[in-house]
Amino acid sequence: MPVSVSPALRGRKLGILLSIAPDQPGFAQGLRLAETALNRGVDVYLYCLDEAVRGAEDPALLALQARGLKLFACAYAAQRRNLSLTGAALYSGLGMLSDLISATDRFVSFN
What we know:
Layout: E1 13-18, H1 25-39, E2 43-48, H2 59-66, E3 70-74, H3 75-80, E4 90-92, H4 94-103, E5 106-110
Parallel strand pairs: 1-2, 1-5, 2-3, 3-4
């Protein structure tokens, strides 16, 4: 799919919170929103919380990260699910989520 960068959106910041399991429709919807935003030149910050930390290594998510998506995940949620904290995501606490909410132009949640 060709990338259509919109000059009006270039440099805008979108924050996305995913808190649902990767097998739920909302997870894929969040990824599609992230992809669309990236295609239009928007800086995208995605935070995985609760069950979504299981998808922090999802190949579709990693492909978006390779295109510029900034990927964060909740360290506590990963530890509670006995998941490795090594990987592509930057594992952090809810303070980082708060910073993302305040630093982005728009923030949406899929839960």
